[in-house]
């Protein structure tokens, strides 16, 4: 009995250009890729491999498993919003084989080693994908940061504006200096929710105040909040130039000149944006639809075009979901009250199709998407030695992908817990047929996609 599983296709994305014919050989015992051959191998070359272990994708693509470096799974404490079981299944259905869980919205938040262990205990045995963890920086927890690095968190997140949950308060400049001084000699990364209310300007009497209008919400979170935050971040970065800093979910194109200047000066700054900022625009959001609310907000068409340009020229490094669900009552769907609704968009399972649908319109190839969704997110999360690429010695995380299939987003097609998303009703290009984690099938693509399978994910 062989321990090999063989994957072959006329279109394999190996990370060094356009898809090409190749054969990837995995050892299912170790979960590693042991060889990659040029060309489509004939079945007769692997007579020792059983039919179940011979995966010929034909004209469909074989991609590396996606690494989603920004996900809120909310367990323990808010498992009615999302949990490890449902969230990682949803991720697997979209070709994600590794995700990194954010430190907030769970209770307790991941701000101490004890809290991290509580989260890991909740996750064990439930994860369909591999899961890593971010730690959190809040006022007064500086002494916990190095122990968290030692315990394996992939980096830290902080907020420069209220987070929306009481147990994860935002930090001020003094808090940041303390955290950066503590982390400056480590190889970790400090990530920022970059909105800062330096000069809070509320609505003038002439501005609309109808809470069901998206324009009301958009006016409440202007681009200047992100510009002010990133100005503070880049100023502090000059004092701690050895520490990598990272901007999460950038939405404001007005901040791009600051980011370009910081990068040009040699500061180790990286930036992500999200599927929703690249595929949606404020002008097309209907009245009374809180499913579209997220912080920072979705902005206008011109802003979206500027984000695409920044992604294509390398100013923005990678793309993530920021999957941030809640229960229906907090989304205020029946009332249509965008202003008081929870701010977060549910995306797990849809990201690759969303981005591919938009990329095709722009002539952007699948190799670029793999770079943004796999290679660079793995690098950002400190997993570049084993995730994000199809390479010998790496984890055998593979996706069989049909770029021509059309998929309609319905409630029934969603695998996350609370089935509310702004994408419902859209027809998207591209479909995940199968997802493999370390050579093992974790999503089967059909109506009974998870039947006979189990949660084999590791905690990284």
From TrEMBL:
NCBIfam families the record matches: allantoinase
EC number: 3.5.2.5
Annotated family: Belongs to the metallo-dependent hydrolases superfamily. Allantoinase family.
Gene Ontology BP, a term: allantoin catabolic process
Annotated Amidohydrolase-related domain residues: 61-441
Pfam families: Amidohydro_1
PROSITE patterns with a match to the protein in the record: DIHYDROOROTASE_1
Catalytic reactions of this protein: (S)-allantoin + H2O = allantoate + H(+)
Co-factor requirement: Zn(2+)
The protein's name: allantoinase
Keywords annotated in UniProt: Hydrolase, Metal-binding, Zinc
Gene Ontology MF term list: allantoinase activity; cobalt ion binding; zinc ion binding
InterPro entries linked: Allantoinase, Amidohydro-rel, DHOase/Allantoinase_Hydrolase, Dihydroorotase_CS, Metal-dep_hydrolase_composite, Metal_Hydrolase
Pathway as given in its UniProt record: Nitrogen metabolism; (S)-allantoin degradation; allantoate from (S)-allantoin: step 1/1
GO cellular component: cytoplasm
């Amino acid at each position: 009995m062989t321990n090999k599983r063989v994957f072959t296709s006329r279109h394999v994305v190996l990370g060094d250009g356009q898809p090409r014919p190749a054969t990837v050989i995995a050892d299912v015992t170790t979960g590693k890729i042991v060889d990659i051959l040029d060309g489509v191998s004939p079945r007769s070359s692997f007579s020792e491999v059983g039919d179940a272990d011979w995966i010929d994708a034909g004209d469909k693509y074989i991609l590396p498993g996606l690494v989603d470096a920004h996900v809120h799974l909310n367990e323990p404490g808010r498992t009615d919003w999302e949990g490890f079981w449902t969230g990682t299944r949803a991720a697997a259905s979209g070709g994600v084989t590794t995700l990194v869980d954010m430190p907030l919205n769970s209770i307790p938040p991941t701000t101490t080693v004890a809290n991290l262990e509580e989260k890991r205990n909740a996750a064990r045995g439930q994860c369909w994908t591999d899961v890593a963890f971010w730690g959190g920086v809040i006022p007064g927890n500086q002494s916990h940061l190095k122990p968290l690095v030692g315990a394996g968190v992939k980096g830290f997140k902080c907020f420069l504006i209220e987070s929306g949950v009481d147990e994860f308060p935002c930090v001020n400049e003094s808090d940041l200096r303390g955290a950066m001084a503590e982390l400056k000699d480590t190889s970790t990364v400090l990530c920022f929710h970059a909105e800062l209310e330096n000069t809070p300007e509320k609505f003038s009497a002439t501005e609309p105040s109808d809470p069901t209008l998206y324009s009301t919400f958009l006016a409440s979170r202007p681009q200047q909040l992100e510009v002010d935050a990133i100005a503070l971040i880049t100023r502090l970065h000059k004092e701690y130039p050895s520490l990598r800093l990272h901007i999460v979910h950038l939405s404001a194109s007005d901040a791009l000149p600051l980011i370009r200047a910081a990068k040009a000066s040699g500061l180790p700054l990286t930036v992500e944006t999200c599927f929703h900022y690249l595929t949606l625009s404020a002008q097309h959001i209907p009245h009374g639809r809180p499913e579209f609310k997220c912080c920072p907000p979705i902005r206008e068409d011109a802003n979206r075009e500027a984000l695409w340009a920044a992604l294509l020229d390398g100013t923005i490094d990678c793309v993530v979901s920021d999957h941030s669900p809640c229960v229906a009552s907090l989304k205020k769907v029946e009332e249509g009250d965008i202003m008081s609704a929870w701010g977060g968009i549910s995306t797990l399972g849809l990201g690759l199709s969303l981005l591919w649908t938009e990329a095709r319109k722009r002539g952007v190839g699948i190799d670029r998407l793999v770079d943004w969704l796999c290679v660079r997110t793995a690098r950002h999360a400190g997993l570049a030695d084993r995730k994000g690429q199809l390479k010998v010695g790496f984890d055998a995380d593979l996706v069989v992908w049909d770029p021509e299939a059309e998929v309609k987003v319905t409630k029934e097609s969603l695998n996350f817990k609370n089935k509310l998303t702004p994408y419902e009703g859209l027809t998207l290009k591209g479909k995940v047929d199968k997802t493999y984690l370390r050579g093992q099938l974790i999503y089967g693509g059909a109506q009974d996609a998870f039947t006979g399978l189990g949660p084999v994910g590791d905690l990284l």
